[in-house]
């Protein structure tokens, strides 16, 4: 994710599937599509969201009478701008703290579909040089996601493991300025979330979002030297739409499929604890 998500057409990272207005429609055309068109088009990051949606498309959608198209992106901005501008019908890639921050900064009105929180990707700390956080040397550099909510999430993970201390009551917008104790004198390097796995050779440790860890063949369950607990975790990923589209029958069908026993089993079997169901 980005620290400041502006409503502009984002330049996608390498490997993203791009699209234009001619592909998805805009303005009144997209509104008409969202209201009565057959195919539901959903923007998603590739792993695990795109994989989960593809499973639904290949195994569940036809029986439910749903025509589903999945468009994959490697950044955390375009899926929301595409929903806001009517270029896609929905997206599936984010948690509530990120969406709340995005709407506030950009004046958008994207909402979570009620009852459609699907999974949690535990945030993890990874390192090529140490096997536990306590082994980080004095002055070590730790890379963090540079978007507001995930940076706070990363700092809270470090604090929960006793590496740093944070101001009492700090919320979802904590930054390194809110660090009150830092006995190892850690230095923080803020990077776009997608770049974090590639940074492991240049820093002593990195706090990496679950989807990007998976794409880099890293598992929070096996490779992380510290990872979030899923218990009472507010960072579950959900299906989201522009406000007013929550009751679209196609959206409701997809929400039901994404929280079905079949999808729960798929997540548990495929990801082996690196991604966990949130329903």
Automatic annotation (TrEMBL):
Domain of life (superkingdom): Bacteria
Signal peptide: 1-23
SUPFAM superfamilies, A to Z: Periplasmic binding protein-like II
Lipidation (S-diacylglycerol cysteine): 24
Membrane topology classification: Lipid-anchor
Annotated coiled-coil segments of the chain: none
Family (UniProt): Belongs to the nlpA lipoprotein family.
Protein name as annotated: Lipoprotein
Organism: Streptomyces lasalocidi (Streptomyces lasaliensis)
């Amino acid at each position: 994710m980005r620290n400041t998500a502006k409503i502009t057409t984002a330049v996608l990272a390498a490997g993203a599937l791009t699209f234009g207005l001619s592909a998805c429609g805009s303005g009144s055309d997209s509104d008409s599509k969202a209201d009565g068109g057959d195919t539901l088009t959903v923007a998603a990051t590739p792993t695990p969201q795109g994989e989960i949606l593809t499973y639904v498309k290949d195994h569940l959608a036809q029986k439910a009478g749903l025509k589903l198209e999945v468009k994959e992106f490697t950044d955390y901005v375009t899926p929301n701008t595409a929903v806001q501008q009517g270029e896609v019908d929905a997206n599936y890639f984010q948690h509530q703290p990120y969406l709340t921050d995005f709407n506030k900064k950009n004046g958008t009105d994207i909402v979570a579909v009620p009852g459609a929180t699907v999974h949690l990707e535990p945030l993890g700390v990874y390192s090529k040089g140490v096997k536990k956080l306590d082994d980080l040397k004095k002055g070590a550099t730790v890379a963090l996601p540079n978007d507001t909510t995930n940076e706070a999430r990363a700092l809270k993970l470090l604090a929960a493991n006793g590496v740093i201390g944070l101001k009492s009551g700090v919320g979802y917008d904590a930054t390194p300025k809110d660090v009150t104790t830092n006995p190892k004198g850690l230095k923080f390097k803020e990077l776009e979330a997608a770049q974090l796995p590639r940074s492991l050779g240049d820093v002593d440790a990195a706090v990496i979002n679950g989807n990007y860890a998976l794409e880099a063949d890293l598992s929070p369950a096996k490779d992380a030297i510290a990872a979030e607990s899923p218990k009472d975790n507010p960072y579950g990923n959900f299906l989201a739409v522009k406000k007013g589209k929550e009751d679209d029958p196609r959206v409701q069908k997809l929400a039901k499929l994404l929280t079905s026993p079949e999808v729960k089993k798929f997540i548990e079997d495929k990801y082996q604890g690196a991604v966990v169901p949130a329903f």
